[in-house]
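Q: My labmate handed me this sequence with no annotations at all. I'd like to see what the chain might look like in three dimensions before we decide whether it's worth expressing. Could you predict it?
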Amino acid sequence: MKRAAKIIIQGTVQGVFFRQFCKENAEKLNIKGFVRNLENSNVEIIAEGDSENMLKFIEILRKGPAYAQIRNVNVEEKKYSGDLKDFKVLRI
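A: Here is what I predict for the chain of 92 residues:
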């Protein structure tokens, strides 16, 4: 089964290679979508993929890279579209 989600990560997640960490793990799990920094210092991820891999991806995001300090992970389920072809790091 396919699944899609909008994920907001709060904490110390900018300036600690969090977006690259997301991209590397998304590609390992065949997750499509994007990650970007938000102006409020959070990170937003839009992701689509196999349900099992999405659960693994979200668990990885809860831990984050070495220097990240995750305070909160908000996962909002979205409708799966299949339109996303790869995983990108977007720059503001």
